[in-house]
């Protein structure tokens, strides 16, 4: 990791402070104890006074500010030889000097030898100078990097990642399933490389392009491909990196980012998750956030203000375009909005081909079959699917993936981990009738999606599952399709009541009933598919700044509300009657299917339909999984 001089100095200052005081406290200079090196024995102060009274003391040298004395004494107890003795003197003994003078003792005082003056100079003068100089250096570098005073510690400096020639390793050929978006950005890349072909006819490049789409559809990957294809300077930053706890930092970072971008024009600035800074102003409970609004105002000015951003193309990504400020979305700022939706069948197939390049697969694995089985999957979901299949292949100690691993991985991604199989009991038989009830109604209704498989293997919170393969185009759904789905969802509850009686109905259909109620209510209030008439009585969502369940007050009278409830009950009631009728009419085949399901635990869609065909006719449908 490479550290700047500023970072090194910032970390070295505390270390220097701690080290200095450690040296002063533990390793610093002390007074020189000369007397301890020349005395051979010790004597108490009282004994010293006795020697003084007997006239045996000849000389006294005082050390350590008169706290220690080295005494030269001669006496019978000392063998009539001169000996040097160390004596610790009390802190207050003013009469001692007088006694020594009266006894004509040779007296001398030795001051302590110390370097404290030098260290005092270092501690009181040099050290503060080093600290002040270091802080001045930090402020000077911070101000020069941020473009003005008040930006200490580079808080106002943009955190955008800059690449002169972005080596992302991703080009347009590596991005699949978003062909329309690729065409839009191919035009941007061509303008950056050959602007004269556009300017010759008076065309101007869009100042901003906004990528809008659900999570995982490849917005950030597409931005990497643009950077890799364009060959121009590329700045990338997240919207959340503009916002800090300090007032004015976000706006300063916007200014710094566009200043650097203009210096390197033509270039691309990519802002990921722009909704973090681009939300509508003046919204929310209790007013808006002034700091965030200042940041947004600065962004609006930089994109299309008096100076403009000539040569700077801003590309942003979000999955919440509905909450962005209208001033940000107008032409002149974000001129284009490119929708990056969940891929269709061809898109999923192209994405699978990209992600399957580095995966080992058996020859019988069909990417087309996988694409048919995964409607609604985003690019990230498909990448995760193949990765889960590869992990499962390694766990099973196989050399290449087969359709078995793919099938299991799809189930895991959609429904969760596989649980412990149920034992053969009444509960298992009841669950089997419940799931077969869903499957047989789905097979016999003309407008219902075809059955893919029925299983008693628990996954996630579900004790059993019935899988259907929906048609690829889910944008337009007819009234007959919605009613068929309601009848199919009620098939499990109807089977429990018909087979085991009303007293044995379980809570297993709770999730089914929630879906049924939601579909029936939308038919009445949003789609105009009831006797109330073609009226839209409820909006799709409330105020996004007040939460999903807030701000969506009643838009109709109490009488209309009563009619809505009545129509919902009628729709669900009629569908439930139809579900019970189908179950009663096909009781024989249901018993056979339940016995087979308990034995095998999983019945594939083709096998399920073949058995049903032995007893009754099945409407023709598009069976996308016929080769699976």
Question: How would you describe this protein?
Answer:
The structure is a single chain. By secondary structure, the protein is an alpha/beta fold. It folds into five domains: 5-28 and 116-154; 35-109, 2-Layer Sandwich (Signal recognition particle alu RNA binding heterodimer, srp9/1); 161-339, Rossmann fold, CATH 3.40.50.300; 345-415, Helicase, Ruva Protein, domain 3 (Orthogonal Bundle); 426-539 and 556-613, Peptidase M41 (Methane Monooxygenase Hydroxylase, Chain G, domain 1). It has 21 helices and 14 strands. A six-stranded mixed sheet has the order 6-8-9-10-7-11. β9 (267-272), α9 (290-304) and β10 form a beta-alpha-beta unit. α11 (345-355) packs across α13 and α16 (479-489) crosses α19 (558-585). The model is unreliable at 26-37, 144-153 and 623-628 (pLDDT under 50).
Q: What is the overall silhouette? A: elongated
Strand runs, count: 14
Q: In CATH terms, what is the architecture of the largest domain? A: 3-Layer(aba) Sandwich
Q: How many whole angstroms does the radius of gyration measure?
A: 43 Å
Question: What is the CATH superfamily of the largest domain?
Answer: P-loop containing nucleotide triphosphate hydrolases
Number of helices: 21
Short structural description:
The protein is of the alpha/beta class and 628 residues long. 46% of the residues lie in helices and 11% in strands.
Question: What are its keywords?
Answer:
single chain; 628 residues; alpha/beta; Signal recognition particle alu RNA binding heterodimer, srp9/1; Rossmann fold; six-stranded mixed beta sheet; five-stranded mixed beta sheet; elongated; disordered C terminus
């Amino acid at each position: 990791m490479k550290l700047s001089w500023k970072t090194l100095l910032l970390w070295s200052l505390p270390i220097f402070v701690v080290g200095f005081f450690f040296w002063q406290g533990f390793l610093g200079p002390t007074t020189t104890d000369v007397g301890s090196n020349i005395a051979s024995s010790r004597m108490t102060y009282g004994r010293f006074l006795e020697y003084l009274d007997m006239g045996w003391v000849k000389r006294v040298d005082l050390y350590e500010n008169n706290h220690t004395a080295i005494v030269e004494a001669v006496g019978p107890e000392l063998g009539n030889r001169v000996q040097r003795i160390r004596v610790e003197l009390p802190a207050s003994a003013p009469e001692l000097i007088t006694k020594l003078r009266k006894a004509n003792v040779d007296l001398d005082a030795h001051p302590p030898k110390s370097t404290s003056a030098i260290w005092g100079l270092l501690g009181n003068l040099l050290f503060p100078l080093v600290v002040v100089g270091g802080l001045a250096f930090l402020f000077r570098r911070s101000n020069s990097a941020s473009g003005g005073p008040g930006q200490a510690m580079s808080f106002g400096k943009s955190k955008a990642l800059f690449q002169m020639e972005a080596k992302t390793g991703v080009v347009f050929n590596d991005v699949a399933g978003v062909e329309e978006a690729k065409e839009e950005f191919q035009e941007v890349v061509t303008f950056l490389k050959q602007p004269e072909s556009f300017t010759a006819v008076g065309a101007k490049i869009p100042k901003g392009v906004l990528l809008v789409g659900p999570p995982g559809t490849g917005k950030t990957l597409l931005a990497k491909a643009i950077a890799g294809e364009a060959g121009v300077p590329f700045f990338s930053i997240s919207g959340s990196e503009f916002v800090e706890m300090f007032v004015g930092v976000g706006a300063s970072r916007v200014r710094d980012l566009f200043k650097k971008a203009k210096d390197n024009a033509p270039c691309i600035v990519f802002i990921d998750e722009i909704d973090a800074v681009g939300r509508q102003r003046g919204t929310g409970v209790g007013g808006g956030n002034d700091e965030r609004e200042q940041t947004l105002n600065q962004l609006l000015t930089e994109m299309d203000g008096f100076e403009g951003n000539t040569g700077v193309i801003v590309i942003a990504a979000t999955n919440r375009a509905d909450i962005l400020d209208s001033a940000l979305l107008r032409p002149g700022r974000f001129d284009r909005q490119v929708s990056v939706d969940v891929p269709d069948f061809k898109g999923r197939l192209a994405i699978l081909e990209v992600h399957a390049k580095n995966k080992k697969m058996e020859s019988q694995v069909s990417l087309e079959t996988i694409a048919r089985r995964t409607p609604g999957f985003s690019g990230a979901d498909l990448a995760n699917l193949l990765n889960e299949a590869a992990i499962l292949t390694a766990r099973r100690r196989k050399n290449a993936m087969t359709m078995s691993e793919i099938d299991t991985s799809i189930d895991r991604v959609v429904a969760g981990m596989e649980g412990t199989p149920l034992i053969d009991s009444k509960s298992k038989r009841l669950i089997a009738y419940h799931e077969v009830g869903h499957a047989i109604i789905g097979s016999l209704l003309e407008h219902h999606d075809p059955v893919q498989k029925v299983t008693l293997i628990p996954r996630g919170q579900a004790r059993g599952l019935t899988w259907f393969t929906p048609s690829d185009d889910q944008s337009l759904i007819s009234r007959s399709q919605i009613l068929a789905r309601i009848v199919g969802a009620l098939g499990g509850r109807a089977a429990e009541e018909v087979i085991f009686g009303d007293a044995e109905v379980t809570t297993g259909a709770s999730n089914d009933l929630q879906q049924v109620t939601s579909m029936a209510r939308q038919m009445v209030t949003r789609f105009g598919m009831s006797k109330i008439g073609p009226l839209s009585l409820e909006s799709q969502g409330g105020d996004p700044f007040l939460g999903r369940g807030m701000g969506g007050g009643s838009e109709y009278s109490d009488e209309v509300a009563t009619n809505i409830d009545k129509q919902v009950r009628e729709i669900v009631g009629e569908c439930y009657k139809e579900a019970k009728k189908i179950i009663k009419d096909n009781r024989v085949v249901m018993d056979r299917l339940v016995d087979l399901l308990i034995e095998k635990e999983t019945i594939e869609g083709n096998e399920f339909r073949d058995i049903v065909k032995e007893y009754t006719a099945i409407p023709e449908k598009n069976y996308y999984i016929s080769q699976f």
